Amino acid sequence: MESKTDRTEPTAPPSAASAAAISAVLGDDDLLREILLRLGFPTTLIRAAAVSKRWLRHASDPTFLRRFRTRHPPALLGFYIRELGARGPRFVPVSQAPELATATRRASAAEGRFFISDCRNGRLLVMDFDPTACRHAVLSPLHPARGKVVLPPAPKQSLIWFFLTENGGGYDGAVAVLMLPIGTTKTKVQVDLLTSGSGVWVAHRTVVIDLPETLPPIAYTLPPVRGKIYSLTKSGHILGLDMTAAKSSLIQRPDKVRTDNFMLSFGEEGSKLILIHAEGYLLSIWQLATTRSDSNDWVLVYDKIRVHEAWNRLEDVMVMAADDNLEFVFLWLRSSAVLMHMHLKSRSEKVYDEFKVRDGRFLDINPFMMVWPPVFPALREEDNVEG
Question: Superkingdom of this entry's organism (predicted)?
Fold first, then answer.
């Protein structure tokens, strides 16, 4: 005989009292903002903003977006990897969140014959493998309708680096940093910050800066942030150039960083300079406030993090890359010749056994993040289902 628990009762429609309660909650702007704040992903926030112009107004409010970013930093979708001799990069997903599946699929579709010069905020700055001319272009994999934006031909000078603009939004431009040593002693340098537009490079800012010593050979340069440029020299020091104050500094690495096995990046939207160092199977992470006058006041954030995969194999690791939120660090195991990543907060590790190269210095790794701020679609009048 069928029991009451075996029967499936039909779902009753919400009562008038329940509907009134729901309407009271969603009609309260303060409560609505708190609900939107807990959505978790920018993609979900965009879908919620499509409900009505009122919801869009709250979701796109700059104050609300600052709170949302603090609570839910832009997620790492995956990374682009290019091995020596490969025709181009391939995308490897990291996020398994269903809410990001569409974004991950679009990032995977952006593979091609090019070299990635810069990668941030959901965009790629690439250099085509064109036998007739090497040209730079901007790709927006998460917004394929924007297509490919080809940049003007590069200026014919040395010591030039190309980067994406700080805050992409709907703009697909790029900036170039040009350093020209002045005089025979090379203790002065002219720094030009160029922006792309109307088919040419335009000087956005030019400044002459005295250097603390002769301009040293530069290994690589970080993207300009808040008028400041940081370059790692081949001697292991960090050259800082402040274009606003027209000053320079030679930053020493922390005393405990005794090897050259480290990399630099930015954290907290450019307010922190991050140094990730590996020694044996241990990681240490330091940060330096870019707003402080003491250019050598490093703060130790993580000390002697054990990379268990390397410890188990009794081998050293090489620092390859890190995402913008300093959530994931990508490492290369020297002896096993495999790539892995560590999630710093949980200390979880993942080994990518499919990637085996003899020398990690020939691996090009570019972590790929979600776009911030979100790009909200415009609502039509007929989509405005509530006031």
Answer: Eukaryota
